[in-house]
């Protein structure tokens, strides 16, 4: 039975990944800060699907937390077959008015922790010539994001980094895939400080929909999973248009969503 490690597993897309993988029969290592929520989720998934679910309480904003997860990924005696690098957060507002310490934390979690965990997992997987890594980015990766500047930049890093590492891993037996959700019903927007939104409901997706698409695309060997036709069209248009246009469009959209 394969083992999947999911970061940010206590809520949102991470929790949906844990549930989706458990339904497929994967044993799990659930990583996040909130040990109580992880324990509850582990019991729920074991009862529902008969899988083993271990809890790894770790704060990925600390060196100790990242090291603990990296060491679990590198443990040759207890191999991890699939890493879902999902942990992350966003901030909202004019960059100059935001707490710069929180912005640096955003880079540390969304970029540095993901980089370190990808490195740990890839090293162990290449030795076994088997495994998969899913790095969760966002549609925000495809254009500059006014009033969400740091978040968009971190996801642009994940986008570029994941494509490059996928190419480096070609022929090693390890699959590296990028996941780019659009607007998704989770706790993310509340935590980012966006509050209520008037973005039309038809644009939103559930975390379960995002995960189902990602796992289907992983099965198909795709390099990128963008769930939904509207999101795929938005990514294509953003990729083709110059930044001078996409940053203005993104700014108008984000103002409507705030």
Helices, strands, pairings?
Elements (H helix, E strand, L loop, with lengths): L2 E5 L4 H12 L3 E6 L2 H15 L3 E5 L5 H12 L7 E4 L14 H29 L2 E6 L12 H20 L5 E6 L4 E2 L2 H5 L12 E2 H13 L4 E2 L3 H12 L2 H15 L1
Parallel strand pairs: 1-2, 1-4, 2-3, 4-5, 5-6, 6-9, 7-8
Helix pairs in contact: 1-2, 1-7, 3-4, 4-5
Word description of this protein:
The protein has 258 residues and is of the alpha/beta class. The protein is built from 9 helices and 9 strands. The chain has a 7-stranded parallel beta sheet with strand order 3-2-1-4-5-6-9, sandwiched between helices. Strand 7, helix 6 and strand 8 form a beta-alpha-beta unit.
The CATH superfamily bears the name NAD(P)-binding Rossmann-like Domain
Terminal-residue CA separation: 44 Å
- The number of distinct structural domains comes to 1
Q: Helix content range of the residues, please?
A: 40-55%
Second-tier CATH architecture: 3-Layer(aba) Sandwich
Low-confidence runs: 244-249
Whole-number average pLDDT?
A: 89
> Under the CATH scheme, which class?
Alpha Beta
Biggest β-sheet: strands ordered side by side in the sheet: 3-2-1-4-5-6-9
- Count of DSSP helices? 9
| CATH third-tier fold name | Rossmann fold
Q: Radius of gyration in whole Å, from Cα?
A: 18 Å
Could you say which structural class the secondary elements and strand pairing correspond to?
alpha/beta
């Amino acid at each position: 039975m394969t083992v999947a490690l999911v970061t940010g597993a206590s809520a949102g897309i991470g929790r949906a990944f844990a549930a989706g993988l458990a339904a497929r029969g994967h044993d799990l290592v659930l990583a996040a800060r909130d040990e109580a929520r992880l324990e509850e989720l582990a019991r729920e998934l074991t009862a529902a699907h008969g899988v083993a679910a271990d809890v790894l309480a770790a704060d990925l904003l600390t060196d100790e937390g990242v090291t603990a997860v990296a060491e679990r990924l590198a443990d040759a005696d207890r191999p991890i077959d699939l890493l879902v690098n999902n942990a992350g957060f966003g901030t909202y507002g004019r960059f100059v008015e935001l707490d710069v310490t929180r912005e640096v934390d955003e880079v540390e979690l969304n970029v540095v922790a993901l980089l370190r965990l990808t490195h740990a997992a890839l090293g162990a997987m290449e030795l076994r010539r088997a495994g998969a890594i899913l790095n969760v980015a966002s549609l925000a990766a495809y254009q500059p994001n006014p009033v969400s500047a740091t978040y968009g930049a971190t996801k642009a890093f994940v986008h570029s980094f994941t494509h490059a590492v996928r190419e480096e891993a070609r022929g090693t037996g390890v699959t590296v895939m990028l996941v780019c959700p659009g607007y998704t019903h989770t706790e993310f927007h509340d935590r980012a400080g966006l509050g209520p939104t008037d973005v039309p409901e038809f644009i939103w997706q559930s975390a379960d929909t995002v995960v189902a698409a990602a796992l289907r695309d992983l099965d198909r060997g795709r390099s990128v999973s963008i769930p939904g036709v509207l999101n795929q069209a938005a990514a294509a248009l953003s990729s083709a248009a110059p930044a001078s246009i996409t940053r203005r469009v993104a700014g108008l959209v984000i103002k409507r969503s705030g």
